[in-house]
Amino acid sequence: MEINKISEFKKKSIFFKISEVLVTMASKPSGFIGLSILVFHILLAFVSPYLAPYDFKAIDPSLMLQAPSSEYWFGTDSLGRDVFTRTIMGGRTALTITFFGSLIALLWGGLLGIFCGLVGGKIDDVVMRIVDAFLSIPWILAMLLIVSLLGTSTEVLIPALGFFYGKGIVRVARAATHDVIAKDFIISARARGHSNLSIIWNEIIPNVRDAILVEGAMRWSWMLLGFSSLSFLGFGVSPPTPDWGLMISNARGLMSFAYWAVIAPIVGLSSLIIGINLTADAFAKALGIDRSTKAPV
Amino acid sequence: MFFLIIKRILLGLITLIIVSLITFAGTEVLPGDACTTYLEREAYGAALEACYERLGLNIPAHERYLSWAYNVVQGDFGYSLSGQMPINEVLGPRVKNSMVLASAAIIIGIPIALILGIVTALWRDKLPDITISTVTIFAMTIPEFISATLLILVVAIWLEWLPGIVIVPTDVTITELLPNIILPVIAIAMIMTAHMARMVRSSVIQVMASDYVQMAILKGVPYWKMVFKHVLPNALLPAINVVALTIAWLLGGVVVTEVVFNYPGLGRLVIESISNRDLPTVQALAIILASIYVSINLIADLLTLMLNPRLKTLQIRK
Fold it and tell me: Which of A7, A178, A187, B51 is the most buried if burial means most Cβ atoms within 10 Å?
């Protein structure tokens, strides 16, 4: 009975905390706009296959480069495909891949950072040197190399993005761990004879979780930017999958007279990235973390 | 002081050595080697043997790394597979073109960023700040290829003011190049300026809230004298490091921008050599781009060190 009560209380408190953070985020105009855009895009990604008026890969040469009309709201592209259909479905691949990629980045980056911060010494030195080295390879070069050698399937892209964007999280998690490691409760946990694993799980993670989550939210928008750049350069998803980056790069050559085919995916991608950014900023502020002086590394 | 500088340079060198190991190991561990990736379906028999022979791929990996590193230290990056000439000759004009682009963007970007950052900080939460901050958020979050495409659409196609893409040979002279680079420079400078303006803004705001500035206000120091004498010198120092990180981060964005504008620089070479599966050139590019990153950070660290008397006696930040 007693135990049940405690677990019930805990459950409620986590739910309460999440809703509290969400309310704080939405109470400022920028946070509200960001959250609404993000929620809209996520909902759209789920329902767009049922909303799409046409088949996203149906090619019809007789309908090439039609201007927007009541029939084709956003016009058609150079292969006669409906731009509206492709635009509302264009975020699905990007959102899925970058969401799971960010989760992987959070997981390995966070755990390695906490481990390094806790252990310190030689291991920490070596790992941080390697992380520094990875940070100094331009992301685009590394991603292009991985993708061109291993292919562009989802199973490659998710771990590749997750691995590559996790290295910055290592530094944040390590710094956050350094901040708590000298606190009394860690020293007393050590005095009680707890193992490193138990200290990480029970003492450090609850204290560094917020900083790491905020960093992960920020990485998500950078990863989306990176993934779209890859698609734009022709190294991301393969056609005919509708994807904003790919659509922009395909329609770019003809934009002098078919600007609609380029504008629609631009609006889609820009709004999603701005939405994630505003949400991440509001998230950071709601948790009381100042990351305004951080550089994009 | 002297010891700290030496230590910092050594750390940078160690980072570069690790980068070279990573790129070398990366191309080694990933499936395929330089010859099979380059020759693709023709990778058998005499052609493969000849390629192995020329690149020296039939000697063990660690020996190959050592001889490669030895040559790189002497400034020889080896032989480009797709260009069929020494990588140094491929790189030369590209490095120059990219340097022109980057320095133009930096020369235009830094003063504008300083002014915008200071203005937004001094008029915090007032109309100038709200307008400029909103614009900078848009400029820095929108991907490079989108802002570049929009620039071409609006300035080149709709207004017909400037040429949309750069059509010049790779070995163009600087005077011929300059009229062509206006749009690419704007595209790169825009994002860079937005990032830096945000950093300067938060740095100035932090200093404005500090005790000694409050003290100066209480003592009745005139507002603008306080801004120029007490706030700016202290606020701009920490911004140097952040500016360096921003410039270094933009290396990736420059690649995309160069592709959009068809600009014959290092960035387009990255894409070309990867499309052509020219691994020796990719390795060379990785080392060069990483050295640029490391040296920009090194210069920023040294600048901060020299300009900040307090850091001279302290252990350097790491």
Answer: B51
Residues B56 and B106 in one domain: no
Instruction: Note the pLDDT tens digit of each residue in A15-69.
Output: 787 888 888 888 888 888 888 999 999 998 888 888 777 777 777 777 777 777 7
Q: Which residues of A are less than 8 Å from B290 in CB distance?
A: 133, 136-138
Residues B53, B198: one domain? no
CB contact under 8 A, A149 and B31: yes
Asked whether residue B13 is domain-assigned, the answer is: no
CB B90 within 8 A of CB B80: yes
Let me know if residue B218 belongs to a domain: yes
Range of the domain at B203: 88-317
Q: For residue A125, give the amino acid letter.
A: D
The per-residue pLDDT for range B26-51, each reduced to its tens digit, is 777 666 666 666 666 666 666 677 77
What's the pTM value of the predicted model, to 2 decimals? 0.82
Task: Please indicate whether, in this complex, the C-beta atoms of B293 and A136 are within 8 angstroms of each other.
Answer: yes
Residue B170 in domain: yes
Q: Render pLDDT for A66-103 as a digit per residue (tens, 0 to 9).
A: 777 777 777 777 777 777 888 888 888 888 889 999 99
Q: What whole-number distance in Å separates Cα of residue A281 and Cα of residue A285?
A: 6
Structural domain includes residue A11: no
User: Are A118 and A205 found together in one domain?
Assistant: yes
> Taking each helix axis from N to C terminus, what angle separates A2-26 and A29-51, rounded to the nearest 10 degrees?
100
Contacts of B290 (CB under 8 A, 6+ apart): A133, A136, A137, A138, B15, B16, B19
DSSP helix/strand/coil, B48:
helix
Task: Compare all CA atoms of chain B with the CA of A222 and give the residue at the minimum distance.
Answer: B141
B37 and B158 inside one domain: no
Cβ distance of A273 and B141 shorter than 8 Å: yes
Query: Does the ipTM exceed 0.90?
Result: no
